[in-house]
Amino acid sequence: MTVEADLVIRGGRIVTPSGIVEGDLAISGRSILSVGARVDMAKSVIEADGKWIMPGGVDPHAHIEQMSGMGLWNADTFETATKSAAMGGTTSVISFAAQAHGQKLSETVADYEERARRGAMIDHAFHMTLTDIGVPNFEADLERLIGDGHRSLKVFTTYNIQLNDTELLTIFDMARRFGALVCVHAENDAIISQAKASLIASGCTAPKYHAASHPRMAEIEAVERICRFSEYLNQPVMLFHISTVEGVEAVRRAQARGAPVWAETCTHYLFMTEDVLDKPGLEGAKWMCSPPQRTVPDQDALWGALRDGTICLVSSDHAPYRYDESGKLSAGSNAGFHQIANGLPGLETRLPLLFDAMVTNGWGGAEEFVKITSTVPARTYGLPGKGMIAEGMDADIVIWDPSKTVTYGANDLHDNVGYNPWEGTAVTGWPEQVILRGKTIMKDGAFFGSPGDGCWINRPALATQPRVDTPPTASPS
Ligand code: DUC
Ligand code: ZN
Ligand code: ZN
């Protein structure tokens, strides 16, 4: 019996895990019905000659409706952030359920789940950010929550919410036993504190000094230590936002030793350097993030690491703050870099920037673009149905117009940030239509999603890891 499709996208170049296919992409209900074969029975047809048909983007690192380490709320709610993501071609996002100090983990997660359930317009999941392992019922809650579908954790080694080494090892061991990936913001806190103190003592407080306040050695030390912890306990780890040559090399060495470590970088490290911070007055605050943007040789190393797989994906690290007293200027218009919230918006711009570099300008091509922005994030974080165009997968599809050029303006994003850090940047290749589980949520710049359209994605726990201790090199005498 021939099944009638709800929608057929015809004539485009479809990027699938087994190559580029020219033919029909058929959708039935919320799923992909067939890929490549001619389908004549369809309720509606989109003619897509000359367009790329790609899976919706999966952004696995974004801060949404969350309080910062400095006690400031993000500018975005689930509603504004997920609209912005969709406008840029992203259909799934992993944000954070961030534990406040003293808060029971079950309360943290329930709170974020409820806010996302009401507001989110694309599909979503949470990394559980752990800041206080001493709260009642911590271990039992963690085990239950991982079993209930939250299979990734986030810990810090700095930012006023760091865990010490003993606590980190405790979490790694629990994650190993309960089946979760641990994501780490890895920068050495003592190195940053010392650098900050000496800059402030010398009166160097403008935003441009933020770069020097996060010495590359802070990343190097913490990445090496975390890789060793991962190796020691055989615990899978994702190193967030790698920014330096040496950070890449540390990950590469750990992977060569067999440590179960993965790494990401973000768009702002690939396309920006630290000079973005050097602007008159406090203007540079708009680009402040941690780690800071680095240098051209660092960018070259990051691209090289993407090429050889040392870094497996690119996220946005969307961390939205307005350039006013609610955000970047909360400590006033004479604030020092150490009083300014870190983060910049990126959910909407991640894919067009990478499409331009990889598809339009040929760095890697269309398949590689899909891999690092959708397929690998979905696989690494265990998002069932997401990240590829194949029969039975969720019909999360983006139709890209490869010939459309857009130059970003001062305030043309759909988040609640009020500025675009990419103002003046031109990209060629633009998301023309975005489909979430079979429903069009964006077409030609018009948005059709509604709060609550986004579904929480239940992610089965990882297989638990056996512990592999390093064998002793000499017998005790
Ligand atoms: N860095 C982070 O690690 N998180 C949010 C913002 C930032 O700049
Ligand atoms: Zn971080
Ligand atoms: Zn982050």
List the helices and strands and how they pair.
Layout: E1 5-16, E2 19-28, E3 31-36, E4 42-47, E5 52-55, E6 57-59, H1 78-87, E7 90-98, H2 105-119, E8 123-129, H3 138-147, E9 152-156, H4 165-178, E10 181-185, H5 189-201, H6 209-213, H7 216-233, E11 237-239, H8 245-257, E12 261-266, H9 267-271, H10 296-308, E13 313-315, H11 350-360, H12 366-380, E14 397-407, E15 426-436, E16 439-443, E17 446-447
Parallel strand pairs: 1-4, 1-5, 6-7, 7-8, 8-9, 9-10, 10-11, 11-12, 12-13
Antiparallel strand pairs: 1-2, 2-3, 5-14, 14-15, 15-16, 16-17
The chain binds dihydropyrimidine-2,4(1H,3H)-dione and zinc ion (ZN) (2 copies).
Report the radius of gyration as a whole number of Å: 22 Å
Q: Helix count?
A: 12
- The average pLDDT value, as a whole number, equals 96
Named once each, the bound ligands are:
dihydropyrimidine-2,4(1H,3H)-dione, zinc ion
Percentage of residues assigned to helices: 25-40%
Distance between the termini: 76 Å
Largest sheet properties: 9 strands, mixed
> What is the CATH superfamily label of the domain at 57-357?
Metal-dependent hydrolases
Order of helices and strands: EEEEEEHEHEHEHEHHHEHEHHEHHEEEE
Query: Which CATH architecture of the domain at 57-357?
Result: Alpha-Beta Barrel
Measured by DSSP, the beta-strand proportion falls in 15-25%
Overall morphology: globular
The structure class reads: alpha/beta
